[in-house]
Amino acid sequence: MERILPSFSTLPRPVFPRVEALTRPSWVREHAHDWIQLSYATRGVLGVRTRQGSYLAPPQRAIWIPPGLPHSVVTTERTQMRSLYIAPSAAPWGWPQCRVLSVTPLVRELIRAVTHLPEDYDETGPAGRLVTVLLDQLAGLKEVRFSLPLPVDERLLRVSAALESQPDDRRTLTEMAKCAGLSSRTLTRLFLRDTGLSFRAWRRRLRLLKSLDGLEAGNSVTAVALDSGYTSTSAFIAAFRHEFGVTPRGAVQDLPQPDMPCQDLK
Predict the structure, then answer these.
(1) Dihedrals φ, ψ of 211, to 5°?
(2) Residue 140's domain spans which residues?
(3) Do residues 24 and 137 share a domain?
(4) What is the DSSP code string of 40-67?
(5) Helix, strand, or coil (residue 223)
(6) In a domain? residue 7
(7) Are 118 and 165 in a shared domain?
(8) Eight-class DSSP state of 88
(9) Tell me, what's the pLDDT at 254?
(10) Please, what are the averages of pLDDT over each run of 10 residues along the chain (266 residues)?
(11) Are residues 50 and 125 in the same domain?
């Protein structure tokens, strides 16, 4: 399902929130805008793709998209997403690159509260002060490695596209290089040059990132490990923990929802 974005050229306030509940997988074609976008999935897996790389955010993570950066967006089934459109002047500390951020419990609740604000909230009143606190907290969020740099070389792009479409592809480095018309040594050198990762490390991260969809959907870790090209569940768990610092289940566990709904700030 293609999602159509709202059409406006300027933000009504320095921070403009949006909430979306998507029952089916969706996508938004490549576009860019003059403001910062912070997208946070409270359920499902949110994906952003740029010409430099792919960025995935399971629950508890958010994707920061700087202004002017062409990007496309994909979501899995049953994704609930909260987005903040932020004027660059409101976040002068903003990062110039796309990145995945670990969302703290405080920032999660601040995002939730801000999405309950009216579109024309009072910037000088309690609502405006709440937004200021949120912006201050965003500046301190830590980056996590739920991202995959993409190569620039056309031959490597063909290899990466083949592996993205079939992460459990068991062809060796030599076989992949031959298909690209390269020697294994040249493929290794060019992959490191374009992505900063060895081919083996890039392929491992791709497989682990692709596993997030199955994990978030509730599939067993064993089934996800096999789908990702691993023959051992323990090897999959160890690789996931080494790459991302959390277990596969820990990567997709959402924080508990508060019992009481947020009240709008007037």
Answers:
(1) -70, -15
(2) 15-144
(3) yes
(4) EEEES-EEEE-SSEEEEE-TTEEEEE-T
(5) helix
(6) no
(7) no
(8) G
(9) 61
(10) 79 91 85 94 89 90 95 86 93 93 94 92 95 96 93 91 86 90 93 93 93 90 90 94 91 57 39
(11) yes
